[in-house]
Every structure is written in structure tokens, then in C-alpha cells.
């Protein structure tokens, strides 16, 4: 995301360092000649209207999928995985509010609806991860929407071997452990829309202590507006 967009839209207690937005070079590989040659195009930040660091033309060239999760599950899940990976994570980091927010996803969605043209404008799909996991037939419905043959859907698999995991970074094992340990889709005992936020927030205080738990509770509350906004526009 554009550092300025992050600074302007993500509330936080830490002082955020606003870095310069990088200049993107489009190698135009998809339009290269048979000889493999291509023309490089350099895009300055001034020529971009979207909230990311990527050129508008690149974002307009695809069918975008916006995937989101309930904040009461997303925020502690990220924190647990980061701790397990032994990453330096703190509720006082300037990036903590970014990792605990859905605002940037909402900004990307809004940009597509307002500015994109062609198939990217009419085909943007917002997906609630709860639907993807727990709604029977949702994946098939999504395949039909995208024009993908559902026979290639995979709902079961073998756990990753120790040999596979051995050369992976600690962060890879931590953030993918649930998937790698599983044999298929793990459906929830309840739907995300059934979550009682005050109950979940109290559980977080018990698990992480008052300092971290209160910070999580605060950012859950802040993220709920964007969660509801995206959920109202979800594909179903």
C-alpha cells in the first residue's frame, strides 16, 4: 500500500514513519514479442490513482478477489502466528494497527468500484473467508462465477511431511501450520456472524493479559465498521 495512504487511514498510537512511495517499472511481459523482447514503462506515483503502490493499468488487468475475515478471529490469529514464528511483534509497533485493520482492503474495493474499467470493474468479488470454509457449495458457486472448472477443486489432502517443512523458514511453518497439519477443510463449530464480540474480547484478555488483550479488543471494535461494510458487499 502507498505509505501515505496508510498514514492517512490507519489510526494508531505509534508515530508512523512515512516513507517515499517507490517508482514501479512495468516490464510488460504479458505483451512481449515472440523474441522475448519488451518495452519497459516506468510509472511515477503521480500517475497512480489507486491506494497501492502498483500502476492503475496493472490492477485493471485482473479480476480482483478481496478476501476478509472477522476481526475477532483475524487479529489474535495473526498475533499468535507471529509469536510462534518468534517475530518481533508488539502492540506498540507502528505496523500493529495495519495488521489489525481491514481499512486497506476496503480502500482497494472502493477504488475498483469507482475507478476501474472493463472486466475488473464489473467482476470484483468480495469473499468472506467464513463463507469459503463453512458454506456448502460456496466454492463451486465461486468457480461458476469465475468460469473455472470445479472438478479441480481440492477439499482433502495429505499433511505436509517433516522433510517438506525442514527447509522452510520459521515464519512459514508458523503461519501455515494449521493447513500443513490438516487432511482437509476444517469447518468451524459456529459461523463468524454468530460471534459475541464482548465474550471474545474477554477471552483475549485471559489469553494474552490485559495490556495486549485490551489493545486487541480496541482494534476489533475499530475494524468492525469495515468488516460490516465488506460483508454487506460479499459474494454469496
Fold and architecture overview:
This protein has helices spanning 3-9, 56-59, 71-84, 96-99, 103-115, 119-123, 129-134, 138-146, 162-166, 170-181, 197-208, 210-232; strands spanning 24-26, 41-43, 65-68, 125-128. By secondary structure, it is mainly α. It has a two-stranded antiparallel sheet. The model is unreliable at 32-39 (pLDDT under 50).
Unreliable stretches, pLDDT < 50, 5 or more residues?
A: 32-39
Report the count of strand segments.
Answer: 4
Series of secondary-structure elements, N-terminal to C-terminal? HEEHEHHHHEHHHHHH
End-to-end Cα distance, whole Å, is 28 Å
State the secondary-structure class: mainly alpha
Q: Look at the structure and give the mean pLDDT.
A: 85
**CA-atom Rg in angstroms:** 20 Å
User: How many H/I helical runs?
Assistant: 12
What best-fitting shape do the alpha-carbon axes yield? globular
Largest sheet: 2 strands, antiparallel
Strand content: 5-15%
- The residue fraction in helices comes out at 40-55%
Order the strands across the largest sheet as they lie in space.
Answer: 1-2
Amino acid at each position: 500500500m502507498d505509505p501515505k495512504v496508510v498514514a492517512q487511514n490507519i489510526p494508531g498510537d505509534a508515530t508512523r514513519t512515512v516513507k517515499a512511495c517507490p517508482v514501479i517499472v512495468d516490464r510488460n511481459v504479458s505483451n512481449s514479442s515472440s523474441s522475448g523482447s519488451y518495452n519497459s514503462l516506468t510509472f511515477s506515483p503521480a500517475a497512480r490513482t489507486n491506494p497501492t503502490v502498483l500502476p492503475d493499468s496493472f490492477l485493471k488487468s485482473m479480476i480482483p478477489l478481496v478476501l476478509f475475515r472477522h476481526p475477532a478471529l483475524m487479529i489474535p490469529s495473526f498475533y499468535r502466528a507471529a509469536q510462534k514464528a518468534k517475530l518481533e511483534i508488539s502492540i506498540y509497533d507502528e505496523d500493529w494497527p495495519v495488521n489489525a485493520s481491514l481499512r486497506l482492503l476496503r480502500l482497494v474495493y472502493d477504488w475498483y468500484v469507482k475507478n476501474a474499467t472493463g472486466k475488473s470493474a464489473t467482476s470484483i468479488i468480495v469473499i468472506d473467508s467464513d463463507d469459503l470454509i463453512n458454506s456448502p457449495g460456496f466454492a463451486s458457486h465461486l468457480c461458476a462465477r469465475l468460469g473455472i472448472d470445479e472438478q479441480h477443486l481440492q477439499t482433502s489432502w495429505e499433511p505436509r511431511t517433516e522433510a517438506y517443512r525442514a527447509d522452510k523458514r520459521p515464519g512459514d511453518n508458523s503461519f501455515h501450520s494449521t493447513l500443513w497439519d490438516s487432511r482437509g477443510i476444517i469447518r468451524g463449530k459456529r459461523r463468524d456472524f454468530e460471534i459475541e464480540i464482548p465474550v471474545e474480547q474477554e477471552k483475549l484478555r485471559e489469553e494474552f493479559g490485559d495490556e495486549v488483550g485490551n489493545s486487541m479488543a480496541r482494534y476489533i471494535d475499530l475494524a468492525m465498521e469495515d468488516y460490516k461494510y465488506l460483508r454487506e458487499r460479499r459474494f454469496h
